[in-house]
Amino acid sequence: MTRRGSGRLAAGLVSPTLVVLALVVAYPVISAVRLAFYRREDGIDPETGLIRAGERFVGLDNFAEMFGGDSTGRFLDALANTTTFTLAGVSLEVVLGVLMALVMHRAFRGRALVRASILVPWAVPTAIAGLLWRWVFQADGVANDLLPGPPVLWTTDGFQAWVAVVVADTWKTAPFIGLLVLAGLQVIPNEIHEAARLDGATGWRAFFSITLPLVKPTLLVAVLFRVLDTLRMFDLPYTLIGPGKEATDTVTVLAFEEAVTFGRFGPASAYAVTLFAYVAVVAFVFVRLLGADVLGSRR
Questions:
Q1: Terminal Cα-to-Cα distance of the chain (whole angstroms)
Q2: Is pLDDT larger for residue 64 or for residue 45?
């Protein structure tokens, strides 16, 4: 087969995938960016006195409203919640996930059962996990039964609601990091650890000098996936705490409320586009500055 024929065959095989990606990814993204510059305005036009209906091009007004209008305070609170959820939740997930991976990697009787039990939270749908933790954190729930002192109103607005979301998210997704780190641990040759023991390296010294550097590429990719996922968090705070809460509203919750509750698709798209840019910057930092090997191109 000639090179030209191979190229045509490859293009033919790839084209269905490209068409599907264009329909389910490219078109929604382009539509969202377009809507961010429009706003629906129904009523009487003060300039012409005529009744107007539908969307009107407003340029950057939707973004200006986010950063310098009546909705600025709520947007900045949601952006801060999104960022703090990511920093606190992913940090705890990394620590617990690495510990889980170390436990699952050790050879002991019943290891298969332990691995299955650790991965159960990751298999639970997020909305179901939110309802489960809502039952745990209700006023007469398990959390208040275990803690001394008066009952804590976890599912109301406030710092305790923020803590409840972080705890639920950590429980739900720490096994994901543990699973990826376990895959990295299993490709480390045993001879390396045996040589370290012969050289007199203790467990902690071997972990920080050998194990952690060798699983760093896998760990960075796992952290990148979790950071990007947490920045887009919606279903957990929405089902666990509910919308309209200053301490737990995220940017995605604001976008959902604007679009579904109020029918303002322009401002909702502006929220979504801003979050998209934020996520893109974070991904660039991980890939370029921290060296996360997402494509597996480094040896």
A1: 32
A2: 64
For the chain, the maximum distance between any two Cα atoms, rounded to a whole number of angstroms, is 88
Q: Is 78 helix (H, G, I), strand (E, B) or coil?
A: helix
Q: Does residue 48 carry a pLDDT above 80? A: no
Domains of the chain: 70-289 (1.10.3720.10)
- Please state which of the ranges 126-140, 175-189, 205-219 shows the lowest mean pLDDT: 205-219
Element (H, E) at 243: none
Among the ranges given (66-70, 125-129, 155-159), the one the predictor scored with the smallest mean pLDDT: 66-70
Global pTM reads 0.83
C-alpha span between 181 and 19 (Å, rounded):
35
Handedness of CA 156, 160, 161, 167 (dihedral sign): negative
Mean pLDDT confidence for 66-84: 89
264 pLDDT exceeds 90?
A: no
As a whole number of angstroms, the distance between CA 246 and CA 159 comes to: 10
| Residue scoring higher pLDDT (108 or 85) | 85
Contacts of 5 by beta carbon, 8 Å cutoff, 6+ apart = none
Please provide the DSSP assignment of 187-212 as one string.
Answer: TS-HHHHHHHHHTT--HHHHIIIIIH
**Contact in structure between 253 and 238 (CB atoms under 8 Å):** yes
C-alpha–C-alpha distance, residues 178 and 166, integer Å: 17
Q: Distance between CA 268 and CA 255 in Å, rounded?
A: 4
| Residue matched to tokens 């599907």 | 20
Give the strand pairing for 51-52 and 55-57.
Answer: unpaired
Length of the chain: 299
